[in-house]
Design goal:
By secondary structure, the chain is mostly helical. It has one domain. The protein has 3 helices and no strands. The longest helix is centred in the middle third of the chain and has 22 residues. The radius of gyration is 20 Å and the shape is elongated.
Length: about 60
């Protein structure tokens, strides 16, 4: 697996290490879990948004 470095402040790194320890995972895996959760939260927020007029038009279209 290739890897890279991400610069974060000392306090955030400390919290990340504590979180990883409490989850029983590595710091890298904890970051991956956090990124996945943020992505899921954004998808959920988009799904909660109302449909656009164009989307409603497609849903109401007569397909016969």
């Amino acid at each position: 697996m290739q890897s890279t470095s991400v610069r974060i402040d000392v306090a955030t790194h400390r919290e990340l290490k504590k979180l990883a320890a409490s989850l029983g995972t590595t710091v890298g895996d904890t970051v991956a879990l956090a990124v996945r959760r943020l992505r899921q939260d954004r998808i959920g927020a988009e799904l909660r948004d109302g449909l656009s007029a164009e989307e409603n038009g497609w849903l109401d279209a007569d397909l016969r």
